[in-house]
């Protein structure tokens, strides 16, 4: 069991794509699904600072709606680990990400240069051709599924032993 890591995310209990999850994938439990906004890393001391800084970063941010353009393999086609829902471009999401990133810049353990928002729906350890074919089918069928998320809160999460736990939530109030 590894060291826990911490991150800031939108809770995202999306279930609209669950019927498309192919064999060979394990669904992420609904209560653990999220859209990561900022990775903080393994330092336990970042929680208290995140709890202190987030309310100010979120001040004036109104709830908003995300719509999704379907499923994609993550991190990509060459290495499929997750089947993830990808939101359409949304200025409110981009602004929220920027505000959190700026407010918590000193805490961030982010190693990604580009913000690639997504909600992991299922994961696999299989690396077979049939899994890739199943993902291609799921991605194609997902384009016809209308899926929305009402983003009304931001939370601090802990990841440990492959599970995600919401530690504290902050409401968006506009």
Give a written overview of the molecule.
The protein is an alpha+beta fold. It has a single domain (5-171), classed as Cyclic phosphodiesterase (Cyclic Phosphodiesterase, Chain: A, Alpha-Beta Complex), CATH 3.90.1140. 23% of the residues lie in helices and 37% in strands. It contains three helices and nine strands; from the N terminus they run βββαββαβαβββ. A hairpin with a 2-residue loop joins strand 4 and strand 5. The radius of gyration is 16 Å and the shape is globular.
Brief characterization of the structure:
The protein has 174 residues and is α+β, with helices and mostly antiparallel strands. The protein has one domain: Alpha-Beta Complex (Cyclic Phosphodiesterase, Chain: A). It is built from three helices and nine strands, in the order E-E-E-H-E-E-H-E-H-E-E-E.
């Amino acid at each position: 069991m590894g060291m826990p890591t911490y991150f800031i995310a939108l809770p995202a209990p999306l279930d609209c794509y669950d019927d498309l999850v192919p064999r060979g994938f394990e669904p992420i439990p609904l209560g653990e699904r999220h859209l990561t906004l900022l990775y903080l890393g393994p330092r336990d001391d970042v929680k208290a600072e995140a709890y202190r800084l987030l309310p100010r970063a979120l001040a004036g941010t109104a709830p908003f709606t995300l719509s999704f353009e379907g499923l994609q393999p993550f991190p990509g086609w060459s290495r499929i680990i997750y089947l993830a829902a990808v939101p359409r471009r949304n200025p409110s999401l981009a602004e929220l990400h920027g505000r959190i990133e700026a407010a918590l810049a000193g805490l961030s353990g982010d190693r990604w240069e580009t913000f690639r928002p997504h909600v992991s729906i299922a994961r696999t350890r299989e690396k077979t051709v049939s899994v890739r074919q199943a993902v291609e089918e799921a991605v194609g069928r997902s384009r016809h599924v209308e899926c929305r998320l009402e983003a009304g809160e931001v939370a601090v999460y802990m990841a440990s032993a492959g599970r995600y736990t919401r530690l504290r939530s902050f409401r968006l109030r506009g």
